[in-house]
Design brief:
Length: about 160
């Protein structure tokens, strides 16, 4: 019996969500807690759409002078993109610092081209894009525009 593309996509999403929730996310959180950062993932903090509580999730991001790009591998099915849709105010860890910003989904952005910018060396761009494609079910690009500079004093801690 052959599965429809929609059923495969839902199954892939469920498997990826379980792996993220119980393996990847706790591992990245534990590493961050003991001071070991990774260039493969950073933390994104959103405001929960149902609870109003702060939610942190590891994400892959690429930074520029005015903001950051992220890719939600499962589009709007992802909890953090649903949180952004409800309240676009976010914080993202940029190295050792937290940056505040406003996030928006960018459905018109070329996800395949965007994934090639997530590598530190051009020779790895195709491999990075292939890895993202293997893990995604309904990808969408997300743009975070910073609302204050790193040199600005902190506005209080969450």
């Amino acid at each position: 019996m052959t599965q429809t593309p929609e059923k495969r996509s839902r199954r892939k999403f469920r498997i990826e969500r379980l792996m993220g929730r119980y393996v990847a996310n706790p591992t990245v959180r534990a590493l961050n807690r003991i001071g070991i950062g990774t260039t493969l993932a950073t933390e994104l903090e959103t405001i929960g759409r149902k609870t109003g509580r702060y939610r942190r999730v590891p994400v892959a991001a690429t930074f520029d002078d005015t903001g950051a790009w992220l890719i939600s591998q499962h589009g709007t099915r992802s909890g953090w993109t649903a949180n952004i849709t409800a309240d676009p105010r976010v914080r993202i860890r940029h190295g050792a610092h937290w940056r505040t910003g406003t996030a928006r989904l960018e459905p018109g952005d070329d996800v395949d081209a965007r994934t090639r910018t997530f590598t530190s060396h051009p020779d790895f761009a195709a491999m990075t894009a292939a890895t993202f494609r293997a893990l995604q079910s309904a990808p969408i690009s997300v743009r975070i525009t910073f609302t204050r500079n790193l040199a600005d004093p902190p506005q209080g801690s969450r």
